[in-house]
Amino acid sequence: MLERHPDVSALVVQNESAVGPVLASLPLLGRRVPQDVSVVAICPDQFAEQSGLTSVPVPAEEVGRQAVTLLMRRLREEPVPQVTLLEPRLTVRDSTAPAGR
């Protein structure tokens, strides 16, 4: 991807198990984190804190609560929304820098 898009300045890594390989690969490609490429991980806070990663956690408890609420409404034949959005929470750590550096 970086060969085709050399101006990429940030990556969002969705898969927690891919974060390590991504961070290990960037220096091999001549990219420094965060000076050349910012990295944001979608992962639990504990994992991100240990790694110094800027992150957005998946709120598993809230997802579960919403799922149960929607299921119960559906079982009572009440209307349910087609989409339920949860507000993301970004925690900035050492793996990101301002754009245009």
Number of helices: 3
SSE order: EHEHEH
Classified by CATH, the class is: Alpha Beta
The number of strands is 3
> What is the assigned CATH homologous superfamily?
Response regulator
Task: Kindly provide the radius of gyration, computed on alpha-carbon positions and rounded to a whole number of angstroms.
Answer: 18 Å
The residue-averaged pLDDT reads 94
Subunit arrangement of the protein: single chain
Distance between the termini: 21 Å
Low-pLDDT segments, ≥5 res: none
Helix and strand content put the structural class at: alpha/beta
How can the largest sheet be summarized?
A: 3 strands, parallel
Can you offer a commentary on this structure?
36% of the residues lie in helices and 12% in strands. The protein is an alpha/beta fold and 101 residues long. It has one domain: Rossmann fold, CATH 3.40.50. Strands 1-2-3 form a three-stranded parallel beta sheet, with helices on one face. β1 (10-13), α1 and β2 (38-42) form a beta-alpha-beta unit. The radius of gyration is 18 Å and the shape is elongated. It starts with 9 loop residues before the first strand and ends in a 26-residue tail after the last helix.
